[in-house]
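We now fix the convention by which a protein and its fold are recorded. Here is one such record, which you should read through line by line:

>
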Amino acid sequence: LFRNVPYVLVTWMGAVSNIGYAVIVFAETLYLQSVRGLSPLTAGIVFVGPSLLVALSGPVGARLGKYFRPSAVMAGAGVLAGCGLMALTFVHGWPVYILVFAVTTFGFGIGWTFANVATQAAVRPERAGEASGVMLTIIVTAGGVGVAAAASAIGDLHVSGVPLHAAIEDVLRILAGIVIAAAGITLAVRHELVRRGLTPPLSMKADWTPPEVGHES
């Protein structure tokens, strides 16, 4: 499986997206209650919009999959989510904050919900179950490790004297940079694979003869 570069790309972007989603849910819950002083109920209401867009990300991603290759869709979603996450650390007014929050989670949502669809396109049918299981294990594990790392970083910064809001923002900005860089690496690797004729071009309408069955992503 890990010799299949398209499979590695979609697993990689799925893991990065799930890390981003898990961390933003944790960090924003902490931020809304401990920094902005919202009650748990009010903070939960703020999450309604982002949650709805995450729910929509699956159907939207499936439609995009009819026109673009999976790894390209996931990388594009990563750029959207990373830019949104960076912007989220600079906005404060509630309408703009909720809008940016929702767009960010939408990008992350496409990244990790689309991973399963992308996996099926990247491997032979007889290996689809194995590939899906390995991919989900990696994605879920990465999300847990990401939350643990983010929580430790925020805690260490706060203990060292950095205000809590600044600690959260610093960690989210670093994460945003990582997500955007991961998407850029994915697109660069994909471009090289296309140049070598090892994976199809971006458009689903482009003519392409696969060198080996099951390596379209």
Notes: The radius of gyration is 18 Å. Residues 212-217 have pLDDT under 50 and may be disordered. The first helix runs from residue 5 to 35.
